[in-house]
Amino acid sequence: MKIQIDEQLVEKVSEFKYLGSLISEDGYCEKEIHSRIALGKIYMDKKRLFTGKLNLELKKQIIKCLVWSVALYAAETWTLTQADRSKLEAFEMWIGRTIEKICWVDKKTNDEIMNMVQEDRTRKFSKADKPAC
Predict the structure, then answer these.
(1) Most-buried pick from 32, 60, 117, 128 (CB within 10 A)?
(2) Confidence class of residue 127 from pLDDT cuts 50, 70 and 90?
(3) What Cα–Cα distance (Å) separates residue 130 from each residue in 12, 24, 108?
(4) Is residue 131 packed enough to be buried (19+ CB in 10 Å), middle (13-18) or exposed (0-12)?
């Protein structure tokens, strides 16, 4: 399909950024999710939220408001595959390990980490879940 505006041909592209979200021709969101996770990690590292002695509930509220809101921006438009869901869950585990200052080489299971940060993983990343600030 060719589109012309004022006798100029509009270029066809396979993906573009619109309002901060990457829109792709195929409708999948793998690149968008990857970039959102990277932004969430960068933002979390830049803020150095966990250098002080904050209580766990305050840390979790800060993460929900600052990190997850960046990472899940426009998530309601995503078409999630199981691989995408796994990436988001791995990001969640990275956050849990960062909160508790646990190195990834320490012998701690994901369930142990979630118990330490007092989070329930049963309903994560469903359509109804949104970060609440």
Answers:
(1) 32
(2) very low
(3) 34, 23, 28
(4) middle
Q: In whole angstroms, what is the distance from residue 66 CA to residue 131 CA?
A: 9
How far is the C-alpha of 71 from the C-alpha of 69, rounded, in Å?
6
Question: What is the signed CA dihedral for 90, 92, 94, 100, rounded to 10 degrees?
Answer: -140
Beta bridge partners of 21: 18
Whether this prediction's pTM lies above 0.90 is answered by no
What would the two tokens of residue 91 be?
Answer: 């990001």
pLDDT in tens, 60-83: 888 888 889 989 988 888 888 899
Q: Which two tokens stand for residue 81?
A: 């595959």
